[in-house]
Amino acid sequence: MQMFTAMMQIGWLMPLIAAAEIIGGILFIFPKVRALGAVILAPIMTGIMLTHFTIAPEGLTMVLPLLAIYLWVIYENRNKYLPMIN
User: Fold this and answer.
1) What is the pLDDT of residue 2?
2) For residue 46, with 0-12 CB atoms within 10 Å meaning exposed, 13-18 middle and 19 or more buried, which class applies?
3) Could you give the CA distance from residue 69 to residue 74 in angstroms, rounded to a whole number?
4) How many other C-beta atoms lie within 10 A of the C-beta of residue 50?
């Protein structure tokens, strides 16, 4: 509960996360820009996973299927990510 209270006290954090989720989610819908949407959602998904693995494990039933979908999209678009790591 203290973590969520601390996040709410930082006034600009929640709107920033919401904007990244919305923009990344919209890009995630369209196949042409799906890889970009996955890159935008990477830090959000990491934060969600870490939160539910450490602080709120009761939400894992929702996070794990979302993680599977996210990893599948990254795998399907792996050729678009190769120039970033080469």
Assistant:
1) 73
2) exposed
3) 9
4) 10
Tokens standing for 38? 């996955």
For the chain, helix (H) and strand (E) counts, in that order, are 5, 0
Q: Which amino acid appears at position 36 of this protein?
A: L
Kindly tell me the burial class for residue 80, based on how many C-beta atoms sit within 10 Å of its own C-beta (0-12, 13-18, 19 or more): middle
Q: How do the pLDDT tens digits run along the chain, 86 residues long?
A: 676 777 778 878 888 889 999 999 999 899 999 999 999 999 999 988 988 888 888 888 999 999 999 999 999 998 998 888 88
